[in-house]
Structures are given as structure tokens and as C-alpha cells.
Amino acid sequence: MLHRSLVLLLVGMMWSMTASAGPLEFVSGTMHKIRAHYHGKPYVLVIWSLDCAYCFDELRELGDMLKRQPALPLVLLSVDDISLGNNAAELLARTGLASLPAYMFADSFVERLRYEIDPLWHGELPRNYLVSANGERTAITGPLGADRLVRWLSEQSGHERTASPR
Amino acid sequence: MAASQHDSHGRDMQKRERIWQKVLSRPTLAVTIEADRHGKLWRARVSEGRIFVSQSANDGKQFGAEVIVNPDAEAIAANGENRPKLAFGSNSQVYVSWTRLGNAPFSGDIRFSRSADGGKSFSRPVTINTDHQATSHRFESMLVDSNGRIWLFWLDKRDRVKARSRGESYVGAAVYYTWSDNGGNDFVDNRKLQDHSCECCRIALAVTPDAEPVVLWRHIFDGGIRDHAIQFVGGEPLMHRLSRDNWQVNACPHHGPSIAADNNRVHAVWYTGATDKAGIYYASVERNGNTINVSAPRQVGNTPAQAAHADIATANGAVYIVWKEFRLGRSHARLQTFSDNRWSAVETLAHTGGASDYPMLTVVGSRVLLTWQTQQDGLLVIPVVSAASR
Fold it and tell me: Of B306, B324, B375, which has the smallest distance from its Cβ to A108's Cβ?
């Protein structure tokens, strides 16, 4: 009995955490963790801001795509301060992206965060990184475009198939 | 059905407005430092929707009592690319301009206030853009020329609204401007300098020795190329292309240029993200009737160290460029000087281990000062000594 209520309590806590947690903190070292987490798997890092009209267009397009392909390996990162977490979460929910891992800058020393992401990125938005399974990375400034994303993803799954017999 | 669509659209707009307003309320490191005609430094800073102006008698070590410019709080843009501006008349006038952000996302108005008593009190702020549409009038820059004329330039999306209402598309924003010949008592009608500027990069202004403003901005050339355009405002309304980096991008660089003029030339620095040549560049510009001669662009700073947000000044026949770099875990204010026809070595003027504003130059008579607001080390004011003068 005790055991069951404890489980229910834990489940309840986990549920409330996922429901209200909002974006995750992106601090010094987070980029390293994301890379490690996706090691050997392709993913797309999508960097955006609440203060960027082109980003709204991109998020809308990705949201539409996610409806058709719910398993898209996208990681979102907002360069707005995490104090705006509710606002970012609201926008992501509205664009149909709430199910994706979403980070937000949680350190005002943004130069260091940018450097850890890519020393050659000067803060232009939106900024996208297509990262293949072998860690090879293509940077794209401006909206990714659904066509390009689809093409890249199909190339990635092609690589995986040729690699799997080994 | 139409009604429910309408409702959801209304809710969307409300949400967007809430997001926008919260964006405005963030604390900021962006300050404005300018020198008046007597070599005294002035500061304008924004807090809780008000602009606080103060002056320093000791080169920025301390600032005196602050005077509030706008008695009613408003959403004042105060970030890297868009912050209040300060300028001075010859008879102890102090002019302040800023962007008041609107409720709708990316909307704003250009605001102006003046002090006739050396900054002791300020006039009730007025709105400079006279179209009063809820669209973008932002990123203003202000200049007072040697005749005392106050010039204001800003990025304006009223023509975009007009085009949209006709079902047409419009690329980017436009550069609009106005001036006042009576110390800001009133301004001439708003006028357009050029269509199709980039939307969110600051406008750089300088004035030639014969009191002609020069405007430098990131423009959207055919094919979505966001390179720089320059225009002398006095004569024919001719826009010249300054940079040919061919940066084709649909994005917000948030990275505007800087400009300075001396007796012979105009000096410009800008950033491009163009493939294989990303970085800061310098070029000088000579006017030749209705054409311009632009020197071969020279790269400044170390791009892999994120060289960014350069500011430029001229004094004593030399050109000074400062910019920000990130190396070894710290942000550095770097300097390079051009004098006697040669470039100095790059040197570090200051560094800080936390967040910082753009490093900026202020010319005080024949002296040049770096001013750099930092989170850990406060406002750094450092005399810039050119390599040649040592």
C-alpha cells in the first residue's frame, strides 16, 4: 500500500516536472553534453530567439514538418535568457514543437556559450547545425528549409544503412 | 467558423504581445557614453523604462547626479544594436533620442527629448515618426552637425505595411530621416533615404568637415545580399555600394557597421558572414563627384576568436578601430590603429571574464577613449594611445 502510493507520488512528481519544467538550461559545458548524448547519431541543432522574425518563420515550418515526421532529431536552443523560459515554451507549444528537447541560454556571458557552440558563429539568427553520425557538421545561417532538411535526413539514413552490415 | 478563427488569431496576438513585453524588461549592460564640446563625458543608461542622464568631471571614473529624461516609463530599447543616443548643441543643449518598443512584435517609435539647460531638465518626449502606424520604426541614430542641425535616421517599415496592404511583398525595411534647425523645437517632414535596408542592424552616421552627413547601413541588395550601402545626404540622393562580400542570407545579423570622417576621407568598418570570408573589414571611402572610390577592404581582427562589433574613430590624422574578441575564456577589447600610412600591431586594451557591452570609442578633442561596460569590472574608460604616438 505504502509502496503503491510512493510510486504514484513519484509518477506524479515526474509528470509535474515534465509538464512545467520549460526549456532546459544551456550553460558552459552543455554543448559538450549534447554532443556526447548524440554521439554516433545524426541531429540538427536549431538556434533561435524571440527577437528574430526569421526564426518565427523557421519554427513554424519545423512545426509543420514535425507533425508529419514526429521522430525528427531536432534540438532547439534559444539565445534568450532562461528568465524568458515561459515565453519560449509558449511559442514552442504554439508552433507544435513542445515535444522537442529545448534549451535556453542561462548565462549572461554569451560570448563563452557561443564559442563553445562554434567559434565561427557571430550570433546571426536563425543558425542551424546539421550534425551527421560521424560528428561532421554543416552550419547554415537563415531558415533551414524543409526541403533541405528532408534531403539531409534521407542522406543520413542512407549512411546508416550502408554502415549497419558491419 | 470565421469567428473562431478570429478568436484564435486574437489570442495568438495577445500571447505574442506578452512575449514581446517580457523581452523588453530584461536588464541590460548597454549604455551610451558621449563627450560634449567641452570634453566632458556624459552617460545615458536605461533602467525600468526610464533613461537616466548624468555627466562626469573625471573621464568617467564617477558620474554625477542622474536626471530622468522621460517621466513616464516606456519600453526603451537598450541592447547592443539599439540603445539611446546622446548629442550636444553648441549652447549647452543636450539631445536624447531612443526607440520606444511597441506592443506588437518588432514594432516601435522614434522618440526625442532635449535639454536647454545643460542636462538639468528635459522636455516632454515627442515621437519623431509621423505616420503613427504600429510597425517598426527602430534603430535610430542621431547626429548634430557643425551648423547645429540635428539629424535623425532610423529603420522604418511603413512601406512594407503599405505594400502588404496591396498584397505585395517588400524586402526588409527602409532608411528614413528628418532634421531640425531649431534645436529640436520641430523637425521637417519624415523623408525616405532608401528602400530595402536590413531590419535589425544599427545605422552608422558621421559628418564631413563641410557639415554633410554620411550614412552607412546594411542593405538588402538584389538576390537577398546583405552588404553595406553608403550615402552622402547633402547632394544627389545617390546610394553607393560600399562592400561586395555577397553575403546572401535570410537572417538577422544583429551586427551593424561603424563610420568616421576626417578631412579627406570616410572610414568604415563592418561585419560580413559571407562564406569563406566572415569577419570584420575596414575600408576608406573617397568621394569623387557622384562616384566613390573605396579602398581594398582589409580584414581586422581574428574571426575564429569571434572578432565582432567594431567601432571606429578618427583623431590626429589617425584611424582607431576597437572590437571584441573571445579568447582563453575572456572577452577582450582589441585595438588597431592606422597612422602615417601604416597599421599598428593589434593590442588588447582590456579584458573581462564575464558579460560585456560592445567596446566603443569616444573622441574627446585630440584624445580617444575606449568605453566598455562590463558586468564584472563596471564601466572601463581607457585612454587609447596610438602606436605611432609612443
Answer: B375
DSSP three-state, residue B48? coil
What residues of B are in contact with residue A52 (Cβ under 8 Å)? Answer: 251-252
Cβ contact, residue pair B22, A114, below 8 Å: no
CA nearest A28 in B: which residue?
B329
Tell me the pLDDT of chain A averaged across its residues: 86
Q: How far is A46 from chain B (nearest CA, A)?
A: 13
pLDDT per residue as tens digits for the range A52-78: 989 999 999 999 999 999 999 999 999
Of B19, B273, B329, the CB nearest to A112: B329
Alpha-carbon torsion (B286, B287, B293, B296), positive or negative = positive
**DSSP assignments along B239-300, one per residue:** EEE------B-SSB-----EEEE-SS-EEEEEEE--TT--EEEEEEEEEETTEEEEPPPEEE
A46/B contact by beta carbon, under 8 A: no
Please check the confidence at residue B114 and state whether its pLDDT lies above 70: yes
* Grid-cell match 565582432, residue found: B308
pLDDT digits (tens, 9 = 90+) for B180-212: 999 999 999 999 999 999 999 999 999 999 899
Average pLDDT over residues B154-169: 97
Entry pTM: 0.91
Q: Which of B97, B93, B132, B134 is nearest to B115 (CA)?
A: B93
List the single residue in A with minimal CA-CA distance to B325.
A111
Report the distance separating Cα B209 and Cα B287, nearest Å. Answer: 13
Q: How far apart are CA A39 and CA A33, in angstroms?
A: 10
Output the pLDDT for position B12: 57
Confidence of residue B264 (pLDDT cuts 50, 70, 90): confident
Look at B254 and A119 and tell me if their CB atoms are within 8 Å.
Answer: no
- CB within 8 Å: B354 and A141: no
Q: What is the pLDDT of residues B79-105, one digit of tens each?
A: 999 999 999 999 999 999 999 998 888
ipTM of the complex: 0.89
Residue B262 makes CB contacts below 8 A (sequence gap 6+) with B209, B314, B317, B319
Q: For Cα atoms B325, B25, B114, give the angle at the middle one, nearest 5 degrees.
A: 85
And the C-alpha cell for B289? Answer: 563627384
Element (H, E) at A61: helix A53-68
| Residues of B whose CB is below 8 A from A125 | 251-252, 254
Closest CB from A53, A111, A119 relative to B106: A53
What is the dihedral sign for C-alpha A99, B249, B24, A107?
positive
Q: Which residues of A touch B26 (CB under 8 A)?
A: 81, 83-84
Residue B290 grid coordinates:
557622384
Q: How far is B326 from chain A (nearest CA, A)?
A: 7
